[in-house]
């Protein structure tokens, strides 16, 4: 993540990440002075997560819904129809933050990157992990706050 990349978060997700950061910092401060190999691995993983959360929080846009213009962008609840007819609804946002039980796709994921900037009715394709391609059509794009108000 770069310093100029803005990260869309709900207020709840922002607070959840702050709590996780506080917990991780406390656990690191309480670490044993002479850790074994396993404890060192755990500390490195915690430090990596601390860095990731810190960057997200520093670049966060909190609770500001994107415009309701039907364009897929972070902070939008997206409904897509796959070429086989199945539909899926998900939040285009940051993985690793808490959004309840809603599925989250990052704008950096293959599907997220393909759908980013698409307009309702537009079909896009993206590469699957196995190397084949899949197509989806953007059916609906609604700001998270508006979607949440409807449920």
TrEMBL record:
GO molecular function: DNA binding; RNA polymerase binding; translation elongation factor activity
Annotated keywords: Elongation factor, Protein biosynthesis
Residue intervals of the Transcription elongation factor GreA/GreB C-terminal domain: 69-137
GO biological process: DNA-templated transcription elongation; regulation of DNA-templated transcription elongation
Xref: SUPFAM superfamilies: FKBP-like (SSF54534)
Name used for this protein in its record: Transcription elongation factor greA
Keyword set includes tRNA-binding: no
């Amino acid at each position: 993540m770069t310093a100029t990349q803005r990260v869309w978060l709900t207020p709840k997700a922002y607070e959840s990440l702050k709590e996780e950061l506080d917990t991780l910092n406390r656990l690191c401060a309480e670490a044993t002075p002479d850790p074994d190999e396993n404890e060192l691995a755990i500390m490195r993983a915690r430090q990596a997560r601390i860095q990731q959360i810190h960057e997200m929080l520093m670049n966060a846009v909190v609770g500001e819904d994107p415009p309701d213009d039907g364009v897929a962008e972070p902070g939008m609840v997206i409904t897509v129809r796959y070429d086989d007819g199945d539909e899926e609804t998900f939040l285009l946002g940051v993985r690793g933050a808490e959004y309840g039980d809603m599925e989250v796709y990052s704008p950096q994921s293959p599907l997220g990157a393909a759908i980013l900037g698409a307009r309702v009715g537009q079909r896009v394709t993206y590469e699957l992990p196995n190397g084949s391609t899949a197509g989806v059509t953007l059916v609906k794009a609604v700001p998270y706050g508006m979607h949440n108000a409807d449920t």
